[in-house]
Design a protein that fits this description.
Number of helices: 26
Distance between the termini: 40 Å
Structural class: alpha+beta
């Protein structure tokens, strides 16, 4: 058996080398398909296939709360302190419940403070998500409850800031102006950034005896299921515990629900529909490639008809012929898979560049053994399917008839043309489906990118300021330092205006709050969930958000004076439709708040998410110590050129105050379209590959038809037929298959785009021009691909053509 296979390998190599066109076309086609499939599967592998990088990763779950009246995944919130303390004490189906509270911290020890990503964590949180520290220890439950001033460093911070000093333990590090003892250093393979991108950790200190303001702290909570317990059991227990928590604290928790969800699903579930859509696109491309290679293989088998018949006549079995074809397919598939993997390795970084946040969501995208296996399997399946079918058809019938059929060089068996015709029509239909899907998704992306965000993003720069609770312990202290910072920034040359907001501009993220409408209880008695921003005076002027009615906040809107708010257009229309919302009152955290202004809606969580009802309150009336303050500065020139002066202005007010998370609002707008940009680009690449493969198929079918009809073309020209008429005859034959495929593709695209609309909410069916563009692109390409070999045919010498066998 081995000798026979080795003999087939040598024969295949000689045969492919003698006629290199077929293997080159096949390898290139397979490389494109395997490369596209490998790159897409690498993302799928990183999210839904590869094991989570934690101990007992399959047993880890995230606990979440849900505001009143919401059910979407985007509205899942971290836990409040009350729920965290209750769940940590009372859940029977979880053997441990640990929490993180993330925020940037200022560390000192140099001429200028440095802001680093940090997290407060409960005593067992670090052990839950990874192996223990490589140096020292973490902290005990007693140290956590006492909020001991100890700190654990990440491996990266240890290397960058302290040069990897092995004697680091016991040294003091200033964290938010408070001295902390360094007690440990985590390893380089600690939990990935998508859990919490932190460079240092300190105790969380939240327990039954220490519950901070439930509205100012949100705790990312991870639990581990007990052996034998199921996720539905934990979810049911969490929901029941939340009912009790709500009953204990009606004023702050009325209407809230809670639940448990698997760690993988929590992190990656929202992206599954889009990834499935891209995998389906790869499958369609693979089918298209298989049809293309089947057509090429059919032409090649026709040219080898006599050889196959002679082999059968000399005693070779059908098994021998199949084995030879499989060996040849494996050789081509292997070369195609290698090319595809090389292409995928180059493509994966390009995919990340489309949406840099992918790394923060999926971790490292690697071409591991699973991706390699998928690329090889895809390449082998396409090659084998396209190669064996023509051979199987050729081996039917008796040897004498097959020898007779193969006696002419250009003769084709009856039905060969029909098979090629149907394969080409199928290719065309699949190409239309890919092109239409790509065009529809691209139209959605283009439409989103043209949305007016409701503010002027040009020449706007934002940065976060983290106010130390130790240095600024009271509301009055925090308000005063913020006002001094704003005054110092506003006088900088090139600064037009400056203000602050609570939540920085992070695509897809918005703070939420619950409110009641005075004298208008909701039908179910539950509070309403709305978006929420805490801003300083002149925020709307800085952002250039249109003021529709009423006034802006003023310095007089501070603690001790009547509570006021400004609401968005959507808020006013939702709760006071057709009425004047000014001077109406809402109830927030049990206190009445008067509406003094109405502003236009803004896309302040990104262009991919429609504006929602938003309430703005003045920072001077509500300034909790855990809330970050985000500067927003409008400049008269390139905003990044003023980052250094802004940083110096902040340090001139507070020398321990670093500036971090610097970004422009133009960049925020661009980043918010990252997911749409990613999927539309990938689909368009798949569509482009499909179009190219279809063009090769059309060219190949037309060229083969020209070869088979060379004598007929010569006779027609010799009898006086015009070259243009002969050219149209040849092109029309190819275009009949194309037009049949177009009709089938348009019908299939209707179902495909309907499915895409269900999966992707920002895509609509109201894009007929997208389908027209797809059909037009394919028809023009088909005409070009068919016209070139037809042009060569009509330029042949009729005498030479009639002598062709």
């Amino acid at each position: 058996m081995f000798d026979a296979v080795w003999r087939d390998v040598r024969h295949s190599v000689r045969s492919l080398a003698a006629r290199p066109t077929y293997p080159l076309v096949a390898i290139l086609t397979l490389a494109l398909v395997a490369g596209a499939g490998g790159a897409v599967f690498a993302v799928v592998n990183a999210t839904f296939v590869r094991s989570l990088p934690f101990p007992d990763g399959d047993r880890l779950v995230r606990l979440y709360t849900q505001p009143p009246g919401t059910s979407a995944a985007k509205d899942r919130n971290p836990l409040h302190p009350l729920e965290f303390a209750r769940f940590r004490r009372g859940l029977q189906t979880a053997d441990t419940v640990e929490g993180f509270f993330g925020r940037a911290r200022a560390i000192g020890g140099t001429d200028e403070p440095e802001s680093v990503a940090a997290a407060q964590a409960s005593a067992g949180a670090l052990a839950l998500l990874g192996r223990g520290p490589i140096l020292g220890r973490t902290w005990t439950e007693e140290e956590d409850r006492a909020l001991a001033r100890v700190v654990v460093l990440s491996h990266a911070l240890w290397q960058r800031r302290f040069g990897g000093d092995p004697q680091i333990l016991g040294r003091t590090l200033s964290v938010d102006s408070e001295p902390h003892e360094i007690v440990g250093v985590m390893g380089p393979d600690f939990a990935p950034d998508y859990v919490f991108a932190s460079e240092l950790w300190t105790p969380l200190g939240i327990h039954e005896g220490n519950l901070p303001n439930p509205r100012s702290t949100y705790i990312l909570t991870v639990a581990r299921l007990r052996p034998g317990a199921s996720l539905p059991q934990l979810d049911e227990e969490v929901r029941a515990a939340m009912v009790t928590a709500v009953a204990e604290s009606v004023s702050t928790h009325r209407g809230w629900t809670a639940g448990a969800i698997g760690m993988r699903e929590f992190q990656f579930g929202a992206g599954r529909p889009a990834l499935v859509m891209l995998l389906v696109g790869v499958a369609v491309l693979a089918l298209l490639a298989a049809a293309n290679l089947a057509n090429v293989s059919l032409a090649r088998v026709m040219s080898q008809r006599t050889e196959l018949a002679l082999r059968s006549a000399l005693g070779a079995s059908a098994r021998d012929a199949y084995r030879l074809q499989i060996v040849e397919s494996v050789l081509i598939a292997g070369a195609g898979a290698l090319g595809g993997l090389a292409l995928a390795a180059w493509t994966a970084p390009a995919l990340i560049a489309l949406d840099p946040r992918i790394l923060a969501v999926v971790g490292d995208i690697e071409l591991d053994w699973r991706v390699i296996a998928v690329a090889i399997a895809l390449s082998t399946a396409v090659t084998t399917a396209s190669g064996l079918l023509p051979v199987a058809r050729e081996l039917r019938g008796d040897v004498a008839r097959r020898l007779s059929d193969g006696s002419g060089r250009t003769a084709g068996r009856r039905g060969d043309g029909s098979i090629a015709f149907m394969l080409l029509a199928g290719q065309t239909a699949l190409a239309i489906v890919l092109l239409a899907a790509g065009a529809v998704v691209l139209a959605g992306f283009t439409r989103a990118s043209r949305i007016n965000p409701g503010f002027d993003a040009s020449n706007l720069v934002g940065a976060q300021v983290r106010l130390s609770a130790a240095a600024h312990p009271t509301d009055a202290d925090r308000v005063a330092i913020v006002e001094r910072i704003l005054d110092s920034v506003r006088v900088l040359p090139g600064v037009v205006e400056a203000s602050t907001t609570l939540n920085f501009f992070i695509p897809g993220f918005a703070w939420q709050t619950t409110v009641d409408i005075e004298n208008r209880p909701s039908p179910d008695g539950q509070p309403h969930t709305v978006h929420f921003r805490r801003v300083s005076p002149r925020y709307f002027r800085t952002m250039r958000i249109r003021q529709l009615m009423g006034r802006d906040f003023t310095p007089a809107d501070r603690r001790g004076n009547p509570l006021v708010c400004i609401v968005s257009r959507s808020f006013a229309e939702r709760f006071w439709p057709g009425e004047n919302a000014l001077e109406r009152r809402i109830i927030r955290t049990g206190s009445p708040v008067r509406v003094v202004g109405i502003v236009d809606d803004v896309y302040d969580v990104g262009l991919g998410q429609a504006p929602e009802a938003t309430v703005y309150i003045p920072y001077a009336q509500n300034s909790p110590p855990t809330a970050a303050v985000s500067l927003v500065v409008r400049t008269a020139r390139e905003p990044r050129a003023l980052v250094a002066p802004i940083r110096k202005a902040v340090l001139s007010v507070d020398a321990a105050q670093p500036l971090d998370a610097v970004t422009t609002l133009d960049q925020f707008i661009s980043d918010s379209l990252g997911p749409q940009r990613f999927r539309s680009t990938v689909l368009l690449v798949l569509a482009g590959l499909g179009l190219a493969i279809a063009a090769v198929g059309i060219y190949g079918l037309t060229a083969r038809s020209v070869v088979e009809r060379t004598r007929e073309v010569g006779v027609r020209l010799a009898l006086g037929a015009r070259p243009g008429a002969v050219w149209r005859l040849i092109v029309t034959q190819a275009m009949r298959a194309v037009l049949l495929g177009v009709v089938a593709g348009v019908v299939a695209s209707a179902a495909t785009t309907t499915l895409i609309v269900k999966v992707l909410p920002d895509v609509t069916l109201a894009d007929p021009e997208a389908l027209v563009a797809a059909v037009g692109a394919l028809v023009v390409t088909a005409l070009a691909a068919a016209a070139w070999p037809a042009r060569r045919a009509v330029r042949i010498d009729p005498i030479v053509a009639m002598r062709t066998d």
